[in-house]
Amino acid sequence: MKGIPIEDLEIGDKASFSKTLSETDVYLFAGITGDFNPAHVNEIEARGSIFEGRVAHGMLVAGFLSTVVGMQLPGPGSILVRQELKFLSPVRIGDTVTAEVEVLEIHLRRNMVILGAIIKNQDCRKVIQGKAVVKPPLKCSVE
Fold first, then answer.
1. What is the dihedral of CA 101, 58, 51, 120, to 10 degrees?
2. Mean pLDDT, consecutive 10-residue segments, the chain of 143 residues?
3. What is the total count of domains within the chain?
């Protein structure tokens, strides 16, 4: 399985991935990262927070951008060089989010692309927005 080399990318190319967040997702992420912030794992304490209930980890949700980059656009063999994100709105357990990337710039000489990144919830509300610098996989030469 090989991703899309830079020569085959075009400005405006898009790809997306959707997922409904479960309680299991949140607890597994907490266990893997060690982030047991009550805002994520304790409903009683979370009710008293600014979110008025439990929310998914922002980095769990942002990780779906990695899914799109690593599996679709540009896909397997891609290297994420830099990413900047703005967390705009909380995501709750049971929300369905869609992560989408779009090719904004192509830099052939450096084998780098700039991707716009947006994650929206089921109500089309932006929850995360940002950009990523990615090195697509190299094109294989056939001899």
1. 10
2. 93 98 96 94 89 94 97 96 97 97 97 98 98 92 51
3. 1
